[in-house]
Amino acid sequence: MFEKYRVTLDKKLDLDKFDPADKPFAGESKSDDRARMDELSVLLDDLQNRLHASAKHRVLLVLQGMDTSGKDGTIRAVFQTVNPLGVRVANFKAPTPTELAHDFLWRVHRQAPAAGELVIFNRSHYEDVLITRVHDWIDADECKRRIEHINHFEKLLADSDTLILKCFLHISKDAQRERLQERVDDPQKHWKFDPTDLKERAFWPEYQKAYASALSATSTEWAPWYIVPSDSKRHRNLMVAELLVAALSRLGLDFPPPKPELEGLKIE
To answer: Which residues form a coiled coil (predicted)?
Structure first.
């Protein structure tokens, strides 16, 4: 099931061939989906505890997508029952003057997971080959150089026992319109509405082209991209959880061995 949504390295990617309304892991009913999400939450909690306790592997989950694709919502839903110990979210907004004074990966490498840590990138280093390319802040040659640096950077992380999982939250333009309209219509969601979102929405075709190019050039063996249909919030969350649990399960995580010196110890 996962392979259908995995991006192939250096193969021309047409995002229009992936239906944002797909529900690949849907059960027969909403209650089935909720029950499966509960099961995944239990599994993820156990796997994360083992990851943190063993302090051997590192895990990086990258979430990218158009505005309103649900990066925040995915984090809330997938990690709602996970112990916050050993889990961290790194948000990447417009770079500060200090960050701009360094190479584009400087601020990103500082947020990479430590041993035993699971880090979620809410947006990521890919912003530097997406919005910058769409608005012609960098040319094609610079974009190509950055893509090469990204692949080398992720290979460095992978060679340091970092599991990298990258999810493109794929929504339709209609779904984005509906979600933006919800923010406008609900006064309690006005804080979420940013007028610049409308300006970026006008560049929809350019963003789709930039995403397709970046994803196909960086979906490596050590850091694959998966296209996650995201018109349905519930099924988006379910697929990300399924991907993460499957990837963590392959690590063979376990708790450290018992300490012989503690056998028979009585606490007074």
So the answer is: none
Distance CA 131, CA 138 (A): 9
CATH number of domain containing 101:
3.40.50.300
Whether 261 is in a domain gets the answer no
The candidate with the shortest Cα–Cα distance to 193, out of 80, 67, 98, 107, is: 67
**Which ranges of 69-194 does DSSP label H, i.e. alpha helix?**
71-78, 97-100, 106-109, 131-134, 140-159, 173-185
Residue pair 81/42 in contact (Cβ under 8 Å)? The answer is yes
The side-by-side arrangement of strands in the sheet containing 58-65 is 87-91, 118-122, 58-65, 162-170, 225-229
Find where tokens 């063993």 sit.
54
Residue 134 is assigned to a structural domain of this protein: yes
Q: Residue 78's pLDDT is what?
A: 97
Going by their DSSP bridges, the two strands 87-91 and 118-122 should be labelled as parallel
In the chain, the N- to C-terminal Cα span, in Å, equals 54
| Cβ atoms within 10 Å of 223's Cβ, excluding its own | 21
Range(s) of the domain holding residue 121:
2-254
Interval 18-58: pLDDT, tens: 999 999 999 899 999 999 999 999 999 999 999 999 999 99
For residues 9-44, b (16+ Cβ closer than 10 Å) or e, as one string? eeeebebeebebebbebbeeeeeebeebbeebbebb
Asked, for residue 14, whether it belongs to a domain, the answer is yes
pLDDT for position 83: 87
Number of domains making up the chain: 1
Domain assignment of residue 12, yes or no: yes
Tell me if the pTM is above 0.90.
yes
